[in-house]
Design brief:
Elements (H helix, E strand, L loop, with lengths): L1 H6 L4 H23 L12 H22 L13 H7 L3 H12 L7 H8 L3 H7 L7 H24 L13 H4 L7 H14 L16 H10 L11 E2 L5 H5 L6 H14 L19 H4 L3 E2 L2
Parallel strand pairs: 1-2
Length: about 300
């Protein structure tokens, strides 16, 4: 007992030291338990910046994926090798059919012919065909053949339809649609221009319509023609104002000014043919311009 007691017996200075140590231990424990060590100055990342960083990373990944993806450059399908055909997704049998065809010193000149020879699927052909590159003369010939075929098909469709009239000045929008190559917009454009002219007086006036190709006009006149010329009310050029003369579909501002300047010099036109005396007057338009004018 005395032995145990001797272990708990301290001098006064020693006891004070122990109390101080215990006091500091308690304070440290309290700080650890109750103090908040999280920094109040921590800056939160901006959500928009994070999103922008992610987008940038995604774009870099997409660029890298595209860089690694094998690119298909334009090629002539007549010279597809075993390796090239395998890369494009062709089977050995399809490649062999192509090579056997080429051994006969024959050439493929279209995507349809390529499919016919190799028997590739429509899906694979759709994937490959945009990259086919034939010689220029072959491409032109294919375009011409396609156009001729379209014309034949259009002629067949036209024969199956009827028109309300053969007079181009009375034909309706639906009548014009019978012609292959003329749809909603072109038929409306034809009628709008016909109204502007007050009717077609010359067949050549069809060539003035924007977007109407020569081949379509030729088809158009295989069905329609000018049966009755329009009755156009002519205006006296001597009594017309500048704005009124400018409404003539074949007279622009510059020509209108020249006509008025000339009229001031001669006082008035005695005959409409005097228009030809104006410097730089467009003689090729004379017959059309005088459809709407007279001098007396």
């Amino acid at each position: 007992m005395k032995y145990i007691k001797s272990h708990f017996w301290y001098y006064k200075n020693q006891r004070n030291g122990i109390f101080i140590i215990v006091f500091f231990i308690l304070i440290l424990q309290s700080i650890i338990l109750f103090a908040d060590f999280s920094s109040q100055d921590t800056t939160a990342l901006n959500a928009e910046k994070i999103s922008a960083i992610r987008q940038h990373i995604d774009s870099l990944e997409a660029i890298e994926r595209e860089r690694r993806t094998p690119k298909i450059f334009p090629f002539n399908p007549n010279y597809i090798s075993d390796y090239k055909g395998e890369q494009l997704g062709m089977s050995l049998a399809e490649i062999d059919r192509l090579l056997l065809f080429r051994k006969k010193n024959k050439f493929i000149n279209s995507a349809i012919e390529f499919q016919k020879i190799t028997k590739v699927s429509d899906t694979l052909l759709a994937k490959m065909a945009p990259h086919f590159k034939f010689p220029e003369w072959v491409s032109k010939r294919n375009e011409q053949n396609k156009y001729k075929e379209d014309l034949r098909q259009g002629e067949t469709n036209r024969k199956e339809k009827t028109v309300s009239t053969n007079d181009i000045n009375k034909a309706t929008k639906e009548d014009f649609k019978v012609i292959y190559g003329i749809g909603e917009k072109l038929s409306e454009r034809i009628i709008k221009y016909r109204s502007k002219l007050q009717g077609f007086s010359f067949e050549s006036q069809l060539y003035e319509i924007w977007g109407l190709k020569k081949e379509i006009i030729e088809q158009l006149f295989s069905v329609f023609k000018i049966v009755e010329k329009p009755v156009i009310i002519k205006n006296n050029i001597n009594s017309m104002s500048f704005k009124e003369l400018l409404k003539n579909p074949y007279i622009d501002y510059e020509l209108c000014k020249k006509i008025f300047d000339y009229k001031e010099e001669i006082a008035e036109f005695q005959d409409i043919s005097e228009l030809k005396n104006i410097k730089d007057f467009p003689l090729v338009k004379y017959d059309r311009i005088v459809l709407y004018l007279h001098a007396k």
